[in-house]
Specification:
- The protein has a domain of 119 residues: Helix Hairpins, CATH 1.10.287.620.
- It is rod-shaped and about 135 Å long.
- With 198 residues, the chain is an all-alpha fold.
- 85% of the residues lie in helices and 0% in strands.
Length: 198
């Protein structure tokens, strides 16, 4: 499907290039015919008096200029018909190209969305596993506090208590993007510094 759409984009873009060249060619012909018309009119004006006075060379020049003027006017009339038609074809080709590119972009977008959904599923599974591990981690920390011989629950041993409960350990194990997701959670600057350096 992707290769077919890419081919369609390339083909329609080539048609656009062709029609742009056609439009440019017609516009160039307009310029050439316009110059020829101006030249023919100037030629007639420059010989009008002498031709009216019977000068043979002037009469011949006027006849030639009339023919050139007529030809230029007819060419311009034809081009005035051709140019809008070519521009319409160009517009249609550009629309087809835009449509093909849109379809290709949609295909890429859908693939990216599917990949993102798959990534979200992986995160869901990882968070579920992390939640289960944290539940065990927290339970074991509470059980350790109940051991009087470890002297963990005494207030003077707060740093030891923090080590057992493991909040510092949890913060250190989390990936850095958690800081961006929950910046207010890390109120303890020391924790935030340690976490950010991971």
């Amino acid at each position: 499907m992707q290769k077919q759409l890419e081919k369609q984009v390339a083909e329609t873009a080539a048609v656009v290039v062709e029609w742009k060249a056609t439009v440019a060619g017609i516009q160039n012909q307009f310029n050439v015919a316009g110059l020829a018309l101006a030249k023919a009119k100037k030629e007639r004006e420059s010989h009008a008096l002498k031709a009216a006075m019977g000068d043979a060379a002037a009469t011949t020049a006027i006849k030639r200029a009339r023919g050139e003027q007529l030809t230029a006017e007819q060419v311009i009339a034809d081009l005035r018909i051709a140019l809008p038609e070519a521009e319409a074809q160009l517009a249609a080709a550009e629309k087809a190209t835009a449509s093909a590119r849109h379809e290709l972009a949609m295909l890429h977008g859908e693939k990216m969305m599917r990949s993102r959904v798959a990534a979200a599923a992986r995160m869901d599974a990882a968070f579920a596993e992390a939640a289960s591990a944290y539940s065990d981690f927290e339970r074991l920390g509470r059980e350790l506090q109940s051991f009087p011989d470890l002297n963990i629950a005494v207030s003077g041993n707060m740093s030891h208590w923090e080590t057992v409960t493991g909040y510092r350990r949890i913060a250190a194990s989390l990936p850095p993007f958690f800081v961006r997701l929950f910046p207010q959670t890390w109120a303890n600057e020391r924790l935030a510094d340690e976490f950010g350096s991971i």
